[in-house]
Amino acid sequence: xxxxxKVVGSYEEALAGLSDGMTVISGGFGLCGIPEGLIxxxxxxxxxxxxxxSNNCGVDGxxxxxxxxxxxxxxxxxxxxxxNKLFEQQLxxxxxxxxxxxxxxxxxxxxxxxxxxxxFFTATGYGTPVGEGKEVRHFNxxxxxxxxxxxxxxxxxxxxxxxxxGNAIYRHTAQNFNPMAATAGxxxxxxxxxxxxxxxxxxxxxxxxxxxxxxxxxGRFEKRIEQRTVRAG
Amino acid sequence: xxxxxKVVGSYEEALAGLSDGMTVISGGFGLCGIPEGLIxxxxxxxxxxxxxxSNNCGVDGxxxxxxxxxxxxxxxxxxxxxxNKLFEQQLxxxxxxxxxxxxxxxxxxxxxxxxxxxxFFTATGYGTPVGEGKEVRHFNxxxxxxxxxxxxxxxxxxxxxxxxxGNAIYRHTAQNFNPMAATAGxxxxxxxxxxxxxxxxxxxxxxxxxxxxxxxxxGRFEKRIEQRTVRAG
Amino acid sequence: MALTRExxxxxxxxxxxxxxxxxxxxxxxxxxxxxxxxxxxxxxQSENGLLGMGPFPTEDAVDADMINAGKxxxxxxxxxxxxxxxxxFAMIRGGHxxxxxxxxxxxxxxxxxxxxxxxxxxxxxxxxxxxxxxAARNILVIMTxxxxxxxxxxxxxxxxxxxxxxxxxxxxxxxxxxxxADGAFHLKERAPGVSVEEIVARTAGNLVVPSDVPxxxxxx
Amino acid sequence: MALTRExxxxxxxxxxxxxxxxxxxxxxxxxxxxxxxxxxxxxxQSENGLLGMGPFPTEDAVDADMINAGKxxxxxxxxxxxxxxxxxFAMIRGGHxxxxxxxxxxxxxxxxxxxxxxxxxxxxxxxxxxxxxxAARNILVIMTxxxxxxxxxxxxxxxxxxxxxxxxxxxxxxxxxxxxADGAFHLKERAPGVSVEEIVARTAGNLVVPSDVPxxxxxx
Lengths: 233, 233, 220, 220
What we know:
The complex is a heterotetramer, with 2 copies of chain A and 2 copies of chain C.
Chain A: H1 11-14, E1 23-26, H2 36-45, E2 50-53, H3 66-69, E3 73-78, H4 85-93, E4 97-100, H5 103-115, E5 119-122, E6 136-139, E7 142-148, E8 152-163, E9 168-169, H6 178-183, E10 185-196, E11 215-218
Chain C: H1 5-13, E1 20-24, H2 28-31, E2 42-46, E3 50-53, E4 76-82, H3 85-93, E5 99-102, E6 106-108, E7 113-114, H4 129-135, E8 139-142, E9 154-155, E10 170-172, E11 176-181, E12 184-190, H5 196-202, E13 207-208
Parallel strand pairs in C: 1-2, 1-5, 5-8, 6-9, 8-10, 12-13
Antiparallel strand pairs in C: 2-3, 3-4, 6-7, 10-11, 11-12
C-alpha cells in the first residue's frame, strides 16, 4: 500500500500515544453513532485525567459511561449529561468537572477547531449562565457572545463505511457530531463497520474526506438503543 | 401538492421580487456550476444597481459577465475577477466597485450568513490590504482578523438534481460555492438539471436540505468550459 | 376548566401553516404533531440531524442508527434529509426553522425564558434548547400557568437561570393564550370555562387584558 | 547556471513525503506533480473542492463539471473526495493540507510574501492564495531569484502589498534553496554551477551564508 493507507490492525495501534491528561473529542449523540470499541480501548489503556468533549457522556455501563467507572475522566464538555447515575455521583462529589455547552455551540466550536477559526460570535447563550464572562458584541442591533474553538489531542469517531484512505460515510442519524469531531483531532482515529477499497464510495457523496483521518480500524458494534419507541405494526 | 413543493414553472416566477439595489449571492466557480438561466433572467428583468456576491464574475458574454453589458451591477464581492475585459473597463471607469475577498474567507462569510454566525476570526488576510481597518485579536499568540457574515436578498444556485421539496445534490466540482449560497439568501432560488420525486435521493446523501430552498426551477445549461485542457488518449 | 395536554397540543397546532419547518421539544410539544389540521403539512426538524422526522418505527423497523433528539427510535418521511449536528444547528441558528414549540419553567414579560436549570437540583444540561430559543423567529412556549405549588410561571422577571433572553413572543398555558409585547403579557384567548378573573389572579407578571377575551377554539 | 523550470520543479518535488496532501499553485508549482520521486505518493488538493486531483482528461472524458482551481478540466483519482468551498477552505485553514507550493513576486526575511497585487496594474484578486499562505504549516515558494529587470525578489521587506505575513519558511529560486529564520535568508543549497558570490550579489535581503553550501541535488 502507500502513505494514504490509514488502516491499522488493532485498537491498540489505533489509540497508541493517548496518555494521561489529554483532551479527547468523541462523536456520537446519546448512544447513537458512538465509537464503542475505541471507548472500550481507552478503558483498557487506563489513561486518566482525560478531558472528554462529547455531546453526552454515555449511560451507566455503556458508551463514555464506562470511563467513569475507573475515574478516567477529569472534565466533560457536553450539552447534556443526564441518564448517568455514576456521573451524577462523581459530579456531586467534585470528582469530575462539567462544562455545559449549548448543543449547537458545541457543534460549531468543534467545527471551528477543525476549520482554523479560533472564535466566532453567536446569539446562543446571551443573557444566560453560558454567556457569563464572555465578550458581548452587537451586530445589527442584536447581542451576541464570543465563543472559542475546541480542538483535541485525539478525536474518536464512528463511521459506517470508509475506504482505506479514510474517506468515510455515516449511516442515518449516526452521523451527528462525528464529521466535526473528525476534523478537530490532532490525531483522528476512526472505527467503522466496513472498510472498502478506494473508489467504492462516490467522491461527491463522502461525508468525511480522508485527509482528516489518521488511523482507521475495523470495529464491532453492539449499537445499544437508549429509548426504544415503536408503534403498532 | 403541498406547502413543501418548491417547483415554479418559469424563470420569471423564480426571480419574482428581485428589484433594483438588491444583493444577490451566486453559486459557481469560474463558469462551473453557475446558475446560467437565472443569470440570464436577471438580465432580461433589467434590474440595476445590484450587489453581486460570487467567487468570480463570469467572462465576457457568459455567466455573470452578461450583467455587465447593461451595467446592472454596482458592486461585486469576489475573490478573483480576471478573465473579463468589460469588467476591467467598468472598474477603471469607476462604474463598478469591487471588494476583493480571499476565497476561503468568502466561502466562510457566506456560510456564516446562512448559519446565524454574525462574525468570526480568521488568520487569512492579516497583515495584508484585506486586513486593513479590521479588528485584530490574538489567540494562542497568533494574530487573527474579524470578518463579518454575508447574506443576500436573493441567492441563486445551480444544482444537479433536486426533489420537489428542494433537497438537492451537486455534480462533481460544480458543487463549489452553491451549498453555502443556498443557505444565505432571504429568498433562495435553485435551478437544476433534473427534478425528481421526494424519496429518490438518499436522505444522508443530500448536499442541500430543502429547508434552504424557496423556489426550484428546471433549467437548461450550456455549461461552457473556461480552460479546456486535455491529455492524449 | 384548565386545558388537558391534548387540548393544549390541539390549540398549539393551529399556529402551524402549510409548509412550515417545525422543531418540537419533548413533552406536550411532541404531541402537537398529532393534531396538525387537515390540509396543512409541516416537516419536523430534529436537532440531532434529521429534517422530515416520521412516526416511531414498527417493531421490525427499529434501527439504532435512526433516532431523534430525544434519543427515541424514529423513522424518516419520504423526502427527508439527514445531516451532521453543525449543519443542523446552522439551520436552526440561521433562522431557517419556521416554528419552534417548547416547554418552560418560567416566562417573563420581556420574553425571557427559563427552562433548563433549577438551582439546588442536579443540572443535566441545556441540550439544544438555548440554540433553539436564540434563533427561531417564531417560538411558542407551552406550559402550565402555575407550578405544582400554585405559583405563577408568568412573571415580571424570571427567577431561574435563563435559557434565552427576550426571545419569546407567544405563550400557551392550560388557562390562556398570551402574546408578549412592550413588557407585558397580552391576554388573547382564555380556555373554555376559565374566567378572565382567574387568569388575572394566576398571572404574576404584568398582564394586559383587553375588553373582549374570546374563548379558545381548537379548530380553524 | 540558473535552474530551468523543470529543474526547479524536480528539486521542489524532493520536499514531498509519502502520504502528503499537497496544494500546488499555478505555474511552476503545477509542474512539481510530474516529478514526484518513485515510492512517494502524494494527493493533490484543489481548493475549488477536490481532494485527489488527477491528470487532464482525455478528449472524450472532458466534463464541464470537473475542473480544478485554475478552471482547467481535470480528472479525479480513484479514492478522491469532492466537497464544497467552505469545506475545502476549512481543510486548508485548519492546517490539514501538509504542503503548499506556490509562486511569489517577493519574499522577505521575515517570511512575508507578496504574490497577488502590483499597484498600478489591474488587480484581479487573490483567489485562494491568502487562505493558503495563512494556513499551511509547510509552504515552499518557488520563484526566480530576480525579476526581469534583475532586481532581487528576496528582500528585507516586501515592497508590494502582502499576501501573508510571517508565513514563509522555505524558498526555492532558480539560483538557490533558502530557509527563512530569525530575520534572515539562510542559504542551504546552490544551483549547480552557481557560485555563492553570485547568490550573495543577487540577494537584497539579509543573507546568512554557512561555510559550506552544497550544490543542489535533484534526486533523493
